[in-house]
């Protein structure tokens, strides 16, 4: 009993102290409001959460909230989430989510807590909600409900080897056609090098393929119907699969980012079209630091429409303590934390940080970081978040896009057959409600 | 008088037996409840789920046998069934042949050192995820050791897991690497329990080693081999882990077994009802196979 009252007294003191601190800041916001609570965070073990969680102790110290972290690889995390949510369980208060993939689906299933009221009424004075990327906030808004807060901005970018380009007399690609010309020259000039590598794994490849489709003027849906068999759709399928088949590594149909980054980092590939987030992995060990340049995917007939998406951090609709959970979400997406994550290679979804002196210093240390930032600026300004079909069953739509590309890489179908089969399956999927 | 006494004794016996039964029932109640809770309930719940349809937003409706009707007209289901059976038969054959061969070789060896024995059982002690990751690296067509070895001895390289033609044999080989030693251990146990008198008789009759193997060892080993077959069949028909780690059912759908298909339908695409129908069909197949092999075991017992 005595211990408990001492603890309670101590807690009160801390709360009071916290109150004084925030009052000193001239606002009624109190970071210590939920002192003693425990918030559970279901995290995807990717560079974004890894960077964020290096600052976990700061959060616990600031708020007095205990943060319990459940980390899984992406697919396993999603499966855990599906199980928890279908059981209407409060086991996960906060979880990471990709609005571009599952946003519509999870929102329709009612899994996200609406964050709009919290962003209005429960924010620290320095949160700078207006500074967050408009596009990413819009992409996370469904039927007027804000479903998650953006954690980063990312998209596929073209990493290429300047030394190999120089040796083989190839210039920086100015168009998608140039990529193929470059690949052809490199193949002839040094057969030991894989000229081009990108995603060939079925469920993973829509992320990179979408950028080709959009740059070449294509679109997944036209007038409510699947449009892979339009001339532009077919051209994109043909170009993407041909690049991988004729200039990619053997076994590229099983390639996603781990294999791609490993191949490029080992010096075995000349061009690598992969996520901007992979910069840190690709540069690990420093071997590629001096011989790599980085640009957004060059334009095609449709101009330059880079893919720009971001991970979001959401509160579960079944959480019993959404207010305490919001304190974590708010802290994780605050300018202070996003700045700390930025110098760990996580591009912030806030343009205001681009000019922050510490961040600029980090960027200026390496030329490739400057190019990385320049590419991200293009992504932020012109990016589209459409990866796969803009329908509730987006995850399943990626399956059919992937199948069409793989059929072409493996030469199992002609372009006409592959796109027709995909369109048929996708139209059925679109018609499902 | 005597009759009456007997009746009284019998009555006493009956009530004693009844009480004993009650006690036994009470003692087994936790196990029964556990079985109902952990096995019967999930199965019944899955049956119920298989009669439901879930929209991609999670709204459900009763469709009776709709999911099963969809299954019959679903090409991917038939393809999955074919992949499951092909992988099953190929892996089983490889594992039985190699397992029996290994067991015979080990039986000849008088004494096995601890290191050899540990090495021997290490593949199936390894978590399938670790085995899958390890083989994924070894078999990578660009960076892996397998192609390096092939090309350095002048053989053409292979796409292994990335080739729609070779993916099933490759997965069967990985599984055989992992589980043939297990089959060998079971068969070795069987070999050690064979009666020596039969062999002595064969020796006296002047039977050649091959004839002894063909006419004595293998027939006497059949019950053990059938046991190993049952154990491997249950695992192989619901093959999942190594495929999920290495190919996720690809390239294309070349290694999309029923179990992988059902898992993805349920957990990635939210079609819980259809996934339940798929899984129940698979369960029926596994159950049927086990029943058939159990019959066979009865037939070959000696």
CATH architecture of the largest domain in chain A: 3-Layer(aba) Sandwich
Helix content of chain B: over 70%
**Total number of beta strands of chain A:** 13
Order of helices and strands of chain B: HEEHHHHHHHHHHH
CATH homologous superfamily grouping of the largest domain in chain B: MetI-like
| CATH structural class of the largest domain in chain B | Mainly Alpha
Number of E-state strands of chain B: 2
Number of discrete helical segments of chain B: 12
Task: Please give the domain count of chain B.
Answer: 2
Q: Which regions of chain A have little confidence, pLDDT < 50, spanning 5+ residues?
A: 1-26
Strand order, biggest sheet of chain A?
2-1-3-13-6
Strand content of chain A: 5-15%
Report the portion of residues of chain B in β strands: under 5%
Helical residue percent band of chain A = 40-55%
**C-alpha termini separation of chain A:** 57 Å
- Overall mean pLDDT of chain B stands at 88
Q: Mean pLDDT across all residues of chain A, rounded?
A: 90
Classify the oligomer: heterodimer
Coarse shape of chain A: globular
**What's the architecture of the largest domain in chain B, going by CATH?**
Orthogonal Bundle
| Outline of chain B | flat
């Amino acid at each position: 009993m005595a211990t408990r009252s001492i603890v309670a007294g101590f807690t009160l003191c801390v709360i009071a102290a916290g109150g004084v601190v925030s009052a000193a800041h001239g606002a009624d916001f109190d970071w210590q409001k939920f002192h003693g609570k425990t918030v559970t965070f279901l995290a995807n073990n990717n560079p974004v959460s890894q960077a964020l969680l290096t600052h976990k102790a700061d959060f616990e110290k600031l708020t007095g909230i205990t943060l319990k972290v459940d980390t899984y690889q992406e697919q396993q995390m999603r499966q855990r989430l599906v199980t928890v949510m279908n059981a209407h369980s409060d086991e996960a208060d906060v979880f990471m989510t990709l609005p571009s993939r599952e946003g519509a689906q999870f929102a329709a299933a009612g899994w996200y807590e609406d964050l709009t009221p919290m962003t209005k009424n429960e924010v620290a004075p320095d949160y700078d909600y207006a500074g967050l990327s408009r596009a990413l906030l819009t992409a996370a808004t469904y039927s007027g409900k804000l479903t998650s807060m953006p954690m980063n901005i990312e998209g596929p970018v073209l990493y290429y080897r300047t030394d190999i380009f120089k040796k083989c007399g190839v210039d920086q690609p100015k168009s998608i056609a140039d990529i193929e010309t470059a690949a052809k020259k490199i193949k002839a000039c040094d057969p030991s090098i894989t000229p081009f590598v990108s995603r060939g794994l079925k469920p993973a490849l829509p992320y990179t393929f979408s950028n080709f489709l959009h740059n070449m003027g294509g679109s997944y849906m036209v007038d409510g119907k699947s449009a892979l068999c339009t001339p532009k759709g077919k051209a994109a399928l043909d170009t993407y699969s041909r690049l991988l088949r004729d200039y990619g590594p053997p076994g590229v149909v099983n390639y996603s980012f781990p294999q791609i980054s490993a191949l490029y980092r080992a010096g075995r590939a000349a061009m690598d079209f992969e996520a901007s987030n992979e910069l840190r992995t690709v540069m690990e060990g420093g071997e590629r630091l001096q011989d790599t340049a980085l640009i957004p995917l060059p334009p095609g007939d449709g101009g330059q429409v880079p893919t720009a998406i971001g991970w979001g951090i959401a509160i579960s609709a079944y959480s019993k303590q959404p207010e305490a959970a919001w304190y974590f979400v708010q802290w994780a997406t605050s300018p202070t934390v996003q700045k700390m994550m930025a110098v760990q290679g996580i591009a912030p979804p806030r343009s205001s940080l681009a000019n922050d002196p510490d961040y600029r210093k980090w960027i200026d240390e390496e030329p490739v970081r400057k190019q990385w930032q320049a590419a991200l600026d293009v992504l932020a300004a012109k990016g589209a978040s459409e990866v796969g079909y803009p329908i509730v069953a987006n995850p399943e739509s990626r399956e059919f896009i992937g199948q069409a590309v793989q059929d072409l890489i493996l030469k199992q179908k002609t372009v006409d057959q592959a796109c027709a089969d995909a369109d048929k399956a996708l139209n059925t999927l679109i018609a499902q409600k | 008088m005597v009759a009456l006494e007997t009746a009284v004794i019998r009555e006493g016996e009956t009530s004693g037996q009844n009480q004993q039964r009650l006690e036994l029932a009470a003692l087994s109640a936790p196990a029964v409840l556990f079985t109902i809770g952990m096995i019967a309930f999930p199965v019944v719940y899955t049956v119920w789920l298989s009669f439901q349809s879930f929209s991609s937003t999670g709204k459900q409706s009763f469709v009776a046998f709709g999911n099963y009707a969809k299954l019959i007209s679903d090409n991917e289901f038939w393809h999955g069934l074919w992949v499951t059976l092909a992988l099953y038969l190929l892996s089983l054959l490889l594992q039985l042949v190699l397992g029996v061969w290994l067991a015979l070789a080990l039986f000849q060896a008088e004494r096995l050192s601890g290191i050899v024995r540990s090495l021997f059982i290490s593949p199936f002690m390894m978590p399938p995820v670790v085995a899958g990751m390890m083989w994924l690296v070894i078999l990578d067509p660009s960076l892996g050791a397998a192609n390096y070895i092939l090309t350095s001895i002048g053989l053409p390289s292979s796409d292994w897991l990335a080739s729609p033609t070779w993916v099933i044999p490759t997965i069967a080989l990985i599984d055989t690497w992992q589980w043939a030693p297990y089959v060998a251990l079971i068969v070795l146990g069987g070999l050690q329990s064979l009666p020596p008198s039969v062999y002595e008789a064969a020796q006296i009759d002047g039977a050649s080693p091959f004839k002894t193997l063909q006419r004595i060892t293998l027939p006497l080993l059949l019950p053990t081999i059938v046991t190993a077959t049952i154990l491997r069949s249950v695992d192989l028909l619901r093959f999942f882990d190594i495929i999920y780690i290495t190919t996720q059912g690809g390239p294309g759908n070349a290694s999309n077994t029923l179990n992988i298909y059902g898992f993805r339908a349920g957990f990635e695409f939210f079609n819980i009802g259809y996934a339940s129908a798929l899984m129940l069909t698979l369960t029926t197949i596994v159950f049927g196979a086990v029943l058939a092999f159990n019959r066979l075991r009865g037939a070959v017992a000696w």
